[in-house]
Design brief:
- This protein has 524 residues and is an alpha+beta fold.
- It folds into three domains: 1-166, no CATH class; 183-312; 326-514, 2-Layer Sandwich (Alpha-Beta Plaits).
- The chain has 16 helices and ten strands.
- The strands form two sheets. Strands 1, 2, 3, 4, 5, 6, 7 and 10 form an eight-stranded mixed beta sheet that branches.
- The chain is rod-shaped.
Amino acid sequence: MATPNPAPVLRVINSIGNMLGAAIAFFYFRVIDPSYSAGMRLGWIEIAYSALIIAALIAGGHALTARWLRPLARAGMGDPTLTEADMPLVRRRALLFPYMMAAVSLFGWTMAGLIWGIALPLAMHHFSWTDALRQLFGVTVIAGSVTCAFIFFASEYAWRRRLPYFFPAGDLRAVPRVPRLAVRARLLAIFLLTGVVPLVVLGILAYTRALDLVGADPATAAGIVADLQLSIAFLLAVGVLAAIGLALFAANSVATPLKEVERAMAEVERGRLDGHAPVVSTDEIGAVAEGFNRMLQGLRDRERVKETFGKYVTPEIRDEILAGRISGEGELKEVTVLFADIRDFTPWVEATAPRDVVRDLNEYFTEMGEAIRDRHGLVLQFIGDEIEAVFGAPIASPDHATHAVRAALDMRRRLRAWNARREAAGKPALRHGIGIHTGTVLAGNIGGTERLSYALVGDPVNLASRIQGLTKDFKADILISEATRKSIDPALAVEELSAVRVKGRAEEVNVYKVVEDPLTGSGA
């Protein structure tokens, strides 16, 4: 980022602006109102007097601005003595910088008009109020106004690149007691300078030349008319150049920040929320940029909440909840429920350090959760060492039973690979049992007013849990129910086991073991 030290900007813009003002004043009194200076004769005393006064004005203006800008210069140099309590003053003066430069310039040109219009004529003993007003008008009103306008718009334009140093969050409008130069006021000021002032000068020129024509002989009148033509051409050239210059400043002051907002909007459209629109003014365009940044921050907060929410619930549930598609009263769905439980969990926990248990459980849940998600399943909850998952909810899927069995086969394969890594590290292998059942459940948000969770209610959930418990009796790692077997892809190889009675059911339940596939070693 460019250094926020205002000294270089101050020197360059003041030099150019005051040279411009001096040139305008010179040509004004040589072309527009030459009769004022025609009779003046300046000796070395008057010149020395004027030089001393000008030097005193420059020195005083420099001392005033240097003192006023000292907090900005200290901030620009990274002064470690600046505290947070100093920053409100620094930030306020950063916004007042163009106004201060214009005010100092206006003061200097006002004093110059008073010196040449009143003080110097008094010292030379040829003072008149008419001449004083003409001098004040030419120096202060004409040259001074153009100079102040140039210095203000130029310093504001150059200083905008440095404002983000003081306002990284772009909260310019939060600073109190700072003028809010509206776009309308900016354009009106430029119109006055480029439209009204040239017309006034042209009117004065026409009036003075008309007075000169009164009683003039033909030769003199022809010379006055020729001089008038030259003066009009000069005014036209200066007016056009001033209009173009100020119009460019005005256009850039509006178009550039709007272009930055447009660029930031394009980034958001591409899904990038880490940018921002630079806020470089306190006008309506600055308010638009600040509003856009607040909106962007809201989007980032929403995305952060969404990502954090997705760590507590699955992305599928998160998206369904945020979209309002999950009913609070629940809805009947045909799903396939999967339960997985680690075998001999209690002895393993007793023989393992708690930190190792948590770390190993997280690794196990990560591996199994990925297998379930890869097959379009949804992990509902982790209960101790047990996993409850569902296929076909909240997003319906016609092949939910097949997805569930294939996920169980993937879990088998992942567990074997994970155990191989554990054994290589000198850790014991872990075993699990998986039970799967298909049926109709009530799925929806369940809980209290302060906390909800997506859950399944119905007998199929209980039966899936009971089938998982049967894996111990049959010494199998994956068991499925009759309802699931009827719904799965026939290519999946299963082996029918004897019917058994489970707790809570009067009728026996037919279960099937998902067998190994001799080609893949995991299952069909």
